Here is the input.
Amino acid sequence: MKILSFNVNGIRAITKKTFIPDMVKLDPDIICLQETKATVEQVKEALKELNSYEIYANEAEKKGYSGTAILTKKKPLSVQYNIGIDEHDHEGRTVCVEFDTLFLLNVYVPNSGSALARLNYRKKWDADFLNFIKNLEKKKPVIICGDFNVAHTDIDLARPKPNYNKSAGYMQEEIDGMDNYCKNNLIDTYRYLNPETVKYTWWSYRAGARQRNIGWRIDYFLISKNLSQRLENAFILNEIFGSDHCPVGISIK
Here is the structure.
């Protein structure tokens, strides 16, 4: 099973580019999207050419903001939107689908913001989201994918020193949040299989950052530790354009 995750930075914008042919060529079994910036109906309309997939989308109350979607060729046993905490459930940040042997949870983690105005909220999100994951794990192993809006260690961003404890995405509180996921028996699949590889998933639109590869790895696949024997590959597709992020993915038996 090949699963892709892609922060598309606007589903209606990216489908006017090469997104549809890119996905047809890659032919994943499941596609998880973040930052769709659209209503559920707008997402389905934008993706109607990908008619071999069932589409499960979540939207924010604020129009044109956030939003997530899962496209799957295999019909899930159940679907859950949001994490059941009112404080977190107005921005369309999660979709969770259940299959026979596992849950797949797609997430767009809140950004702390350029002035760090949401850093404290982000800390609460990380704690509550981890608790949600651990409750799912009581039933079945979990794959969690999406934009986590944090670079975990120095290898995960081009300029760690100037950004550490100064920039959203590399604050110690955010790093602690990712540490807590990994300490709670979740595996960062890309780093697990590629411990020394320098590769990024997001680049600022400013100053030709992508052309110069001044980027950050902030998009992840985390898996329950007991799925590690089923993990075949973890990859970053930074040759795919259309967003300020690129797709990431895993292959799992």
Summary: The chain has one domain: 2-252. Residues 2-252 form a domain with the Deoxyribonuclease I; Chain A fold (CATH 3.60.10.10).
